[in-house]
Automatic annotation (TrEMBL):
Subcellular location: Membrane
The entry's keywords: Coiled coil, Membrane, Signal, Transmembrane, Transmembrane helix
Coiled coil segments of this chain: 137-164
Family of the protein in this entry: Belongs to the EMP24/GP25L family.
GOLD domain: residues covered: 25-122
Species per Swiss-Prot/TrEMBL record: Diutina rugosa (Yeast)
Lineage summary: Eukaryota, Fungi, Dikarya, Ascomycota, Saccharomycotina
Signal peptide location: 1-15
Gene Ontology cellular component terms for the protein in this record: membrane
Protein name: GOLD domain-containing protein
Membrane topology: Single-pass type I membrane protein
Main location (coarse class): membrane
Annotated InterPro entries: Emp24-like (IPR015720), GOLD_dom (IPR009038)
A Pfam short name: EMP24_GP25L
Domain of life of the source: Eukaryota
């Protein structure tokens, strides 16, 4: 998703950071057109007491609100995310929008100092949907083509197997027929030889007046 957003977005604001106390809000105002997709990345940390170091806290959340200032501050987004996360929003109407960031704690902690990194990108929601949809369609088309190619290969292999089986069957039948024919010929020759030998022996015995 990250690389696709990079290609689609026509504007990418530079990342910035600022400092807030717990429950304090920082708002940014953007003139946006309808059907504009916003993607915001947030990373919030808390200051370690007595030092200038900042650390993550699992109980720290970031409240994000988006209001339509042109429509009596009509709120169109109100969500809480983890201290390191992102939010997405698509505008419904054209006009100035206020985007506010507020660090809060789930356990009621107060009076903390926070460093917040904020990065906001915007682009056409239609372009994003179309690009994402096109990629899915292209992937699906590629998979279907690959499956069709495999089916064609399997079908060709089956045809080749049928041809080889038919050829082997014909050769086997031909060989069996020749074996039977040769066996019959051998039997006839053997019987003829025996008859000849018997007649020869009989003639020999007669001449010798043995029988």
């Amino acid at each position: 998703m990250n690389w696709l957003l990079t290609l689609v977005f026509v504007h990418l604001a530079s990342a910035l950071h600022f400092y807030l106390n717990t429950g304090e809000s920082r708002c940014f105002y953007e003139e946006l057109q309808a059907d504009t997709l916003l993607v915001g990345r947030i990373e919030a940390t808390e200051r370690v007491d007595g030092t200038n170091d900042y650390r993550h806290n699992g109980n720290l959340k970031v409240k994000v609100t988006v209001d339509e200032t042109f429509d009596n501050d009509h709120r169109v987004l109100d969500q809480k995310s983890s201290s390191s996360g992102e939010f997405t929003f698509t505008t419904q109407d054209s006009g100035e929008h206020s985007i506010c960031i507020t660090p809060e704690y789930t356990d009621g902690t107060n009076n903390k100092r926070h460093k917040v990194f904020f990065d906001l990108a915007q682009g056409s929601a239609h372009d994003f949907v179309d690009s994402k949809g096109t990629k899915k369609v292209d992937d699906l088309t590629t998979r279907i083509k690959a499956l069709n190619q495999k089916l064609t290969e399997i079908h060709n292999e089956q045809e080749n197997l049928r041809i080889r089986e038919a050829t082997f069957r014909d050769q086997s039948e031909s060989t069996n027929a020749r074996v039977v024919k040769w066996s019959i010929i051998q039997l006839i020759v053997l019987v003829g030889t025996c008859v000849y030998q018997l007649r020869h022996l009989k003639s020999f015995f007669v001449k010798q007046k043995i029988v």
